[in-house]
Amino acid sequence: MSMIEFKNVEKYFGNFHALKNINLTFEKGEVVVVIGPSGSGKSTLLRTINGLEMITSGNLLINDQDIRSKQTKLTEIRKNIGMVFQHFNLYPNKTVLENITLAPTKVLNKSEKDAADTAESLLDRVGMLDKKDSYPSTLSGGQQQRVAIARGLAMQPEMLLFDEPTSALDPEMIGDVLDVMKKIAHEGMSMIVVTHEMNFAREVADRVIFMADGEVLEDSHDVESFFKKPKEVRAQQFISKVV
Ligand code: ADP
Ligand code: MG
Q: What residues flank ligand 1, with Cβ below 6 Å?
C-alpha cells in the first residue's frame, strides 16, 4: 500500500483547471521534491493531500482512505500529515515553547510536562532551544521557520509537506533551514518539498517531480540525471533558468 495515491485527479477553481489528470503515488520514507514554474499547481497539489483543498474528481487515497469519503476525518489526516508553509504561521501571542506544545496537548492529549519535554528536545534538534521563551516577533524569519518545523515534528506525523519553506527568507537564513530539513530527511521522515532550491533537491531528494500548467510532466527517481538532462523541453527550460 502506498501512503498517498492520486488516481486521475482533477482540480478546478471555478473554470480554471489547476490540476490535470494527476496520477502519482508517494511511499513511506520517500523524500520528494516538486519543482516547476509559479502557477503550475505545486501548492494546490500539496494542499489537496491534507485536505486544505478538495479535489474535483478522481480519487485521492491517504493510507488507503479516500479523502472524499464521508468516513474520512480530515482532522485525523492533518494530525498525521503536517505542513510547513512559506510564512511560518506561528501564533504571535505564544512563546516558542507554547507554539510547539499547543497541538500535542490539545489534539494528542499529551500532558504539559510530556509535551514540554518533547518540545525542548525538538528545539534542540533545530538549534532553537535557547529561544524557547521568546515570542515569534523577536526572531528572524529563519529562526521562526525552524520553530515551525519543530512544531510540525511535535505531532509525530507520518509525513511532512513543505511549501516553499525558504522562499520568504533572507538569503543568509536559508542555509540553516535547509540544514534542518536535510537532517530530518536523513532521519527517515517522509517528505514532499516544493522548493526552488535546486542544490537541496540534488543533495537530498530520492525523486523529483516537475509540474507545469497543472500537469506532472516528469517524475524521476534518477535525480542526478534529471538535473543533468531533463527529458521534457519545458523542464529543460525551467532548469536552465533557475540553476
Ligand atoms: P504554484 O504553487 O505552482 O505557484 P498554485 O497551486 O498556487 O501554483 O496555483 C495554481 C493555479 O491555481 C494558479 O494559477 C492560481 O492562481 C490558481 N489558484 C490557486 N488557488 C486558487 C484559489 N483558491 N482560487 C482560484 N484560483 C486559485
Ligand atoms: Mg505555490
A: 13, 16, 18, 36, 38-44
The protein residue whose alpha carbon is closest to atom 13 in ligand 1 is 39
Best of 44, 167, 211 for a ligand 1 pocket test (most atoms within 8 Å of beta carbon): 44
Interior angle at CA 154, CA 150 and CA 156, nearest 5 = 125
Strand-strand pairing, 190-194 and 207-212: unpaired
Segment 127-164, tens digit of pLDDT: 999 999 999 999 999 999 999 999 999 999 999 999 99
pTM of the full predicted structure?
A: 0.96
Complex-level ipTM: 0.98
Nearest CA to ligand 1 atom 20: 44
The protein residue whose alpha carbon is closest to atom 27 in ligand 1 is 13
Contact 123, 139 (CB under 8 A): no
Ligand 1 centroid to Cα of residue 230, in Å, is 25
Contacts made by residues 10-13, CB under 8 angstroms, sequence distance 24+: 10/55, 10/56, 10/57, 10/58, 11/41, 11/44, 11/48, 11/53, 11/55, 11/56, 11/214, 12/56
Alpha-helical (H) ranges within 155-232 are: 171-186, 198-204, 223-228
Tell me: the pLDDT tens digits for 153-194? 999 999 999 999 999 999 999 999 999 999 999 999 999 999
Contact between 36 and 73 under an 8 Å Cβ cutoff? The reply is: no
